[in-house]
Every structure is written in structure tokens, then in C-alpha cells.
Design a protein that fits this description.
CATH superfamily of the largest domain in chain A: Isopropylmalate Dehydrogenase
Number of strands of chain A: 14
Largest sheet of chain A: 10 strands, mixed
Distance between the termini of chain A: 19 Å
Low-confidence stretches of chain A: none
Order of helices and strands of chain A: EHEHHEHEHEEEHEHEHEHHEEHHEEH
Oligomer: homodimer
Bound molecules: 3-isopropylmalic acid
Strand order of the largest sheet of chain A: 2-1-3-12-11-4-5-10-8-9
Structural class of chain A: alpha/beta
Largest interface: A-B, 58 and 58 residues
Number of helices of chain A: 13
Chain lengths: 356, 356
């Protein structure tokens, strides 16, 4: 198996966690006799500083020639005063759009070993296994018109969806649910928004092609509550772009830390892989960052771009083993118990490597 | 003290809980020698069924002549197929707009007696006392253009804010924080949305007039997480309309149930009071509804429309007393302990009345 992976480490803790993820990919390649090659590229604040652009052409060209793109994180407080289209995040949104992946998969799993890390009671998080399917190329993120007019002191963003955009991401959700617990929960605000009415009608229509899968609709406000109250009730959760942004971060609470959450964006020319967490500039370079989100993201590369399901499972099992052995980065050390060992970013990466 | 209150009970559990709230207001009037009069009006699904409109002119006219409007809940699955502007919820949005209140205050308080009702650990919810200030007349709820074109199969909603709209609601937040713990957390998505950039810049400007109050900015996705992880860190949380809708429902998780949450909308011609919970048609008429959200909403009427702070506190204390005595409606009976007594909507109302 040959795989060419563009590595865009980005800002803050991006490089540290990505380094651990590529280490794991190298290990998998060596163990299985695969040939993985890595091409590095600039993105985000680092790219602005070095080239003036959050997504240099060289990065995009390289990414489009690869089989997968592994991204660290982007964002740097230094650029807070800039308008959205000049910020590090613009690089992320541009590459998402250029690669064309519209279905962002974000698993939210409760690890037994981490049940003490969550602010939720263990009996609430027990056995939770949610897969968010977040539409990633539509809605307020990309809708036009969008402006902030400093003369009239007014600003506008546009939430826009077409039926086709909803159909394609809904299909991904139903396909995935078919191989899981056969349930899709679609999130919208159909009691207020026309866009949500289109969303709900379209998802309902797509559901007819998947008679074995149960479809339920939830309003986004209720859903924000249900995810905390009864997370075990959910299997695949299908959302538009911004609702998915909010709810999948919220679901990090189940796992105990955003630092544990991986994501994969599929459906486009090249799949894009990024941990859900941000660049966390405040802890960059301190060794406090949790690399498991990035490592689990590497597992998703194996699953969705290399078709190496067994290896993906092996990486996930290695993560589980290390957690069960009590190793904890700072973010998952809440309520530290006897038998737990605090470790750095690098140590955690090494431990997963050894467990593999 | 004289007060004329329009009572719009609405749909589902609306009438049952509102009935308990007006009972409490009557009791306060009697005890204090005040003259409260109540005028009933139709709204929501009930109004559609009886008059064809979710907000009949008669209701609006009556409401505008009152000193306060007490609303139950609106929404009925019967009308799910209708477009947003024909649904029960349209009546709610129309009356919000007509009354002109732009600052929706939603306290989220952790009651010690209910610490077992929350899916969050008691050490996380302990002493939490958050006041959401949700902008209620702008954003995606009211922004134009808005449409779902069934020919082109495309739909649009518009998130729109002007500087003035942000200034006025921000002032309310800072004023309230000045009398609380001197902290405002403003929520936006300024790394992506132009509207959020206007929001952030404006709030930052308003903050200059309140040097004693600390202002912090949070992205809505991070905030959805922080509210669960570190709810004690927040005092006043200022949000645009939809973010406030989502986050304040989520914060219901802290209290243990949405059924506990009151709200008041101030700043307009007539203040509007509504519990945060919905119409819950599935439990309507079963006696399972929790009337405490509506009763605590009545306390907010006393506070914000009658200037009877002592009486408002007395009602809140009565609620606390009843909870401490172990009485529980179904929604707050999670993890039932010995010493707890399950009660119906009506019994709960009576108990608060007696405790008063
Ligand atoms: C950094 C930001 C633009 C991004 C988003 O909002 O999509 C992030 O929050 C995410 O969830 O991947
Ligand atoms: C019923 C609905 C229109 C309403 C809203 O979204 O504002 C409700 O969820 C609320 O929070 O008061």
C-alpha cells in the first residue's frame, strides 16, 4: 500500500500533535510494509507570517497531488484584529473548500478509562458512541452576501443550502448508520429557519432509501441539552455546518477533552483529516498538548484513505491500552486517581507507538 | 401596587404551568395588598385552531395595553408541515417583535437540592449562577432575505446585526454584571463570521463605559464546552439570538431540567415573561409538567415589572424550600433519593404557594 500524505501542521500545538500522528503512521507503514510518504506545507498563521497568505498556492497544489491531507490546527491570537478572510482560519476554510470534502465525520466516544475526566457522571457517559456527520462546505461559513460595513455599522452573513448539498451529506450519514446502530438524528431549527425546513424535508426524503435506518429530527437547542442528558440515545448525528461546529465541540465533554477527538472530511477530491481541537496557543511548546486527537485522526486516515481498517483498529486499540494503563496528558487528568501517570505530548505519543 | 398582566397560556403544557404561575402572583398580591389583574389571550397553535392566526390582533392589542405579558409555551407537532411564518412559533416571534423587548434574561442556577438531577457531577454544578443575556430581536430569526424556493431547491436565511442593536443589549449585560460578579462573557464566532466581528468590536467598545466589569470573548463552539466543564467561571453571558437559544437550553443541564428555567425580556414597550421550556405536547395534561420554570418566571415579573424585589426573592425562596423538602416533578426526579416525594404539576404549585 502506497499513500502520499500532505502534512499541514499549522499553528500553536498543531506541529507537536501532528508530529506524534505522523510517527504513528510511519510505524504502521513499517509494520505492514506500506509506503507512506509525507509532504509538508504551510497553513494558517505560520503561513501568513512566512508568505503573507493563510493558504499559499504551493500548499494547495501539493495537497491536491496527495492522497490525504493531515492538518494540525490553525489560529493565532496575533491575527484577531484581521477580518475573517485574512485570518489563519481563512486558510482552513479555503483548503476545506478546495479539497471539496463536504462530510466531516467526528466520532465522540466515551473511553471507560477516562470516565473520571468528564464533568458528566460515569453512568451518563457509559458506552456512548456518537458519530457526528457535519456538513462542511455550506451554511453561514461560505454563504454570500457577507460583509461588515463600517460606515452603516451593519453586518451580514448568509445561511444558504441547496437540496443537492443536503442530499449528498445526508447519504453519507445514512450509509454510515447502516453499518452502525441504524439511527440518524438530524439537527435543525425548522421551527424558525427556512433553510432548516429545506434541510428537514430533504433529509426525510433521503431517509426513504434507507428503510432499515430510523430517522429522528431534533431542534438544535433541544439537541444541545439531549447530548448531555442522554448521549447514549444517539448513533449518527447529522448537522449543517455551524450547528455541527457547536454540537461536536460540546460532545467533547463526553470524552472528557476536546483533545481526544479526531475528524475526517470525505466526499471530495482529497480527504482532509484534522483533530477537532484548536491551536491552543496558550499551551503550545509546553508539552501539555494531548496528541491522542491527532493520533486517532491518523487512524481515520488509515480507515478512510488507505482502506486499512485493521490497522486503524490497532491504533485505536493502542490508544485505549495506554489510557487503561493510566497515562494522562494534562487535559484528561481531571480527578486524578491513584495509578495515573501524568505524561507529556511526546511521552504519550511514544507510549501509543510502543503499545502498537 | 397595580399591575395588569396579559396571560397567553399557549400550547401543550403552557396552560397548566401558567395556571400555577398566576396562582402564585395572586397569592403575592393578596399578601402584599397589591392589585394584579389578568387578561387572557390566545397565541400559538391554539390561536391558529381558533382564529387561523398564531397571533390574533385581539391578543396583541390586549398585550400592548398591559404592564407585562406572561406567556406559557407555543408549539404543536400538528403544524410541523407549515412554513415558519404560519406556525405556532410565528406567533411567539411576532409578539416578541411587537413588544420590542430586545434583552432576554435567562438565569441558570444550580439548586443544591437538585444536584442529583443533573447529569453533571455535583462538584461541577456547585454554586453555579449564570445569567444569560440573549439578544432577542435580531440575527437569523428576523433577518431578511429569507426564503425556501421549491423550484430552485435552495433556501436562505440572513444573520444581520447593526451596531445599535448590539450596543443596547450589551449595555443591559454590563449593567446587570455591575450588580453581580462584575464579569461579562460575550459569545460569538468572530473567527468566521463578519456579523460576529461587528458584535465583538461593539461589545468591546461598550465595555469601556464599565471599567469595573471584566469582559471576555468566547467562540460559540468553545463556549458550548466551557459551560459544561467550568460553569462556575461565568457570570453574565451575552449572546446573539441563535447562540443564546442553543447555549441557554444547554445550560438547563446545569439546573437538572429545562423545566426549572425562567426568562424575562426587557427593554421594549411591554416586558415579556416566558419559561425557557417548550410546549412539550407529549406530556401535556398528564400532570408531569414542572411548573417551577413558570413560577420563577412570575418572580421575574415581580422583579422587573412590579419592582417588588422582596416578593420576587420570597417566591424564589419558596421554590428553594419546596425543593429542599424533597418534592419533585418527573423531570427533576433523576437519581431519586430516599426522602424525595414525586408530585404533579398542580401539587408542586400548591406546595410553593404554601411555602410562601
Ligand atoms: C477554526 C474554525 C474555523 C473551525 C470551524 O469553525 O469549523 C473549528 O472550530 C472546527 O470546528 O474545525
Ligand atoms: C419556540 C422557539 C421559536 C424559541 C426560540 O427559538 O427562540 C424557543 O426555543 C426559545 O428559546 O424561546
Amino acid at each position: 500500500m502506497r499513500l502520499k500524505i500532505a502534512v499541514l501542521a499549522g499553528d500553536g500545538i498543531g506541529p507537536e500533535v501532528t508530529h506524534q500522528a505522523t510517527n504513528i503512521l510511519r510505524a504502521v507503514a513499517e509494520l505492514g510494509g506500506h509506503e507512506f510518504t509525507f509532504v509538508e506545507g504551510l497553513i494558517g498563521g505560520t503561513a501568513i507570517t512566512e508568505t503573507g497568505s493563510p493558504l499559499p498556492t504551493a500548499t494547495l497544489d501539493a495537497a491536491l497531488e496527495c492522497d490525504a491531507v493531515l492538518l494540525g490546527a490553525v489560529g493565532d491570537n496575533k491575527f484577531n484584529a484581521l477580518p475573517p478572510d485574512k485570518r489563519p482560519e481563512a486558510g482552513l476554510l479555503q483548503i476545506r473548500q478546495a479539497l471539496g470534502g463536504f462530510a466531516n465525520l467526528r466520532p465522540s466516544i466515551a473511553y471507560t478509562a477516562l470516565s473520571e475526566s468528564s464533568p458528566l457522571r460515569p453512568e451518563v457517559t457509559k458506552d456512548v458512541d456518537i458519530l457526528f456527520v457535519r456538513e462542511l462546505l455550506g451554511g453561514l461559513y461560505f454563504g454570500a452576501p457577507r460583509w461588515w460595513d463600517r460606515e452603516s455599522n451593519e453586518a451580514i452573513n448568509t445561511m444558504r443550502y441547496t437540496r443537492d448539498e443536503v442530499v449528498r451529506v445526508a447519504r453519507v450519514a445514512f450509509e454510515l448508520a447502516s453499518n452502525r446502530r441504524q439511527k440518524v438524528t438530524s439537527v435543525d431549527k425548522a421551527n424558525v429557519l427556512e433553510v432548516s425546513q429545506l434541510w428537514r424535508a430533504t433529509v426525510t426524503e433521503v431517509a426513504k432509501d434507507y428503510p432499515a435506518v430510523t430517522l429522528e429530527h431534533q431542534l438544535v437547542d433541544s439537541m444541545a441539552m439531549h447530548i448531555m442528558n442522554i448521549p447514549r440515545n444517539f448513533d449518527v448525528v447529522l448537522t449543517e455546518n455551524l450547528f455541527g461546529d457547536i454540537l461536536s465541540d460540546e460532545a467533547g465533554v463526553i470524552t472528557g477533552s476536546l483533545g481526544m477527538l479526531p475528524s475526517a472530511t470525505i466526499g471530495g477530491a482529497v480527504n482532509l483529516y484534522e483533530p477537532v481541537h484548536g491551536s491552543a496557543p496558550d499551551i503550545a511548546g509546553t508539552g501539555k498538548a494531548n496528541p491522542l486527537g491527532a493520533i486517532l485522526t491518523a487512524a481515520m486516515v488509515l480507515r478512510h484513505s488507505a482502506n486499512l481498517e485493521q490497522d486503524a483498529k490497532a491504533v485505536e486499540a493502542a490508544v485505549n491500552k495506554v489510557l487503561n494503563a493510566g497515562y494522562r496528558t494534562a487535559d484528561i487528568a481531571r480527578g486524578q486517581q491513584p495509578g495515573q501517570t501524568p505524561v507529556s505530548t511526546q511521552e504519550m505519543g511514544k507510549l501509543v507507538h510502543q503499545a502498537l
